[in-house]
Amino acid sequence: MTPALQAMQRSDAQNPAMLWVAQGQALWKTAPGNGKPACAGCHANGMAGVAARYPAFSEPMKRPVTLIEQINRCRTTHQSQPAWRSESEALLSLAASIGQQSRGMPIQPPADKRLAAWQQAGEALYRMRMGQLNLSCAQCHEERAGGRLAGAVIPSGLATGYPIYRLEWQGMGSLPRRLLNCTTGVRAAPLNEDELTQLELYLMQRATGLRVETPAVRP
């Protein structure tokens, strides 16, 4: 990140993602109008630290879920509302608002043995060559981190600030969106839902101890 981009992320007055955070804060306090509670009605003390612990294992679903998946599960289960579509403004806004409550806290994936197989599968995906370019995530984000690709600096692939605002997108986006962008870049078949969750689990494990940056800004 350039110094100018770092300054943009650090300043709530300059960070464009704070517009989504503000919308998420409004959604947090808004009841759905069917007698069900607003998010704030169940979580009166807020959710500081929650984003630093996801993905986590969901006992009802018998699988790990991401924070975005859990938001939609709460919406359908506790508010009797339809799930928001992937990458919708409302879903990203609420996720950014919840993530912002953990900003500056260290990422601490749960010490849950039920996640181990999923994390291992995520690492295998991270190191697996794929697509017509026959590249792995690790080749770019470990072996070539700090180098350049088409004039842009190759990052180390640490998912510390999602959902993020990307200048390239001129808007907010989730980690699955970014991962799918990468698979398109190497001309590989899109990852399925389980694979995206596995990879997110591994990326958060890689980032253990780093600070949550949500909402981050990237080129």
Describe the structure in your own words.
With 219 residues, the chain is mostly helical. It folds into two domains: 3-100, Orthogonal Bundle (Cytochrome Bc1 Complex, Chain D, domain 2); 113-207, Cytochrome Bc1 Complex, Chain D, domain 2, CATH 1.10.760. The chain contains nine helices and seven strands; from the N terminus they run H-H-H-E-E-H-H-H-H-E-E-E-E-H-H-E. The chain has a three-stranded mixed sheet with strand order 6-5-7. The longest helix is centred in the C-terminal third of the chain and has 14 residues, at 193-206. The radius of gyration is 17 Å and the shape is globular. The mean pLDDT is 95.
Strands, count = 7
- Overall form: globular
Across the major sheet, the strand order is: 6-5-7
Oligomer: single chain
Number of discrete helical segments: 9
Poorly predicted runs = none
Q: What's the CATH first level of the largest domain?
A: Mainly Alpha
List the helices and strands and how they pair.
Layout: H1 3-10, H2 18-29, H3 39-42, E1 56-58, E2 63-65, H4 67-78, H5 89-100, H6 116-127, H7 137-143, E3 148-149, E4 152-153, E5 164-166, E6 171-173, H8 175-185, H9 193-206, E7 217-218
Parallel strand pairs: 5-7
Antiparallel strand pairs: 1-2, 3-4, 5-6
Helix pairs in contact: 2-5, 4-5, 6-9
